[in-house]
Specification:
Strand order of the largest sheet: 3-2-1-6-7-8
CATH class of the largest domain: Alpha Beta
Largest sheet: 6 strands, parallel
Strand content: 15-25%
Number of strands: 8
Radius of gyration: 19 Å
Order of helices and strands: HEHHHHHHEHEEEHEHEEH
Mean pLDDT: 91
Oligomer: single chain
Number of helices: 11
Helix content: 25-40%
């Protein structure tokens, strides 16, 4: 496997030229160049906090206001972050294929803001809220910064609509993600460590169905061994370059479509 990003990009573009159905599986590295810190890298969020302190149902039930205030801080960061060149490249790539699905572990909705239309959020989103007890969506625009709101229906405490450690992924979303994986021709695994299950298992599942897996990540990950093509570059650099190559090949009539 070549360590040259240019070689990997060319091979990936050639494979995409022959594809009709594409899935993009993204992790925290996808949004890092938008200024959103990752969890596991040096300086990441879990260097300062243990997951069980702030990202579990038990933590919320123990101290809902502390958890809410921390997520409000993160929410403001994500609302202010712009989609980066990688997000925009994926949105621009979408019309080239019969089916183009983004499956993301990220909770920031930067894919949607960039223009991607079919996005499956495996871990929910920080930009929505619901009651922790009755599940009713909470859609008030003005949110307190330090105190978890009270649900008007049951009196329970309102939480961000993210999937916490120890919780199940949303069943309907995961089922749709599996269907997309099983029926695609190429899977781009972008900016994900491949360490968080069951989400990471989707990439390995793709291999069982003969899908070409392209890893885009500046460093080796748990998914490197299953990748057919590796591009050692960041999402914001690799994806615009991949889009440009794809456009060139299509304009030259080098694609099968």
């Amino acid at each position: 496997m070549s360590a040259d990003p240019t070689d990997g990009l060319q091979r990936a573009a050639e494979r995409l030229c022959q594809a009709r159905r594409v899935v993009v599986f993204t992790g925290a590295g996808m949004s890092a160049e938008s200024g959103i810190p990752t969890f596991r890298d040096p300086g990441g969020l879990w260097e300062r906090f243990r997951p069980e302190e702030l990202a579990t149902p038990e933590a919320f039930e123990r101290d809902p206001d502390r958890v809410w205030a921390w997520y409000q801080e993160r929410r403001r960061l994500m609302e202010a972050a712009p989609p980066n060149a990688g997000h925009l490249a994926l949105a621009a790539m979408e019309p080239y294929f019969d089916e183009f699905t983004v499956i993301t572990q990220n909770i920031d909705r930067l894919h949607q803001r960039a223009g991607s239309r079919r996005v499956l959020e495996l871990h929910g989103t920080i930009l929505a809220n619901h009651c922790h007890y009755c599940g009713l969506p909470y859609e008030e625009e003005l949110l307190p910064e330090k105190t978890a709101p009270i649900c008007p229906a049951c009196g329970g405490r309102v939480r961000p609509s993210v999937v916490w450690f120890g919780e199940l992924l949303p069943e309907a979303v995961f089922t749709e993600a599996e269907h997309s994986i099983e029926n695609c021709d190429v899977l781009l695994a972008v900016g994900t460590s491949g360490e968080v299950y069951p989400a990471a298992g989707l990439v390995r599942q793709a291999k069982l169905f003969g899908v070409t897996v392209v890893e885009i990540n500046p460093k080796p990950t748990e998914l490197t061994t299953v990748a057919d093509i590796v591009v050692r570059e960041s999402a914001a650099r690799a994806l615009p370059a991949l889009l440009q190559l794809l456009r060139q090949y299509r304009q030259a009539g080098a694609c099968s479509q």
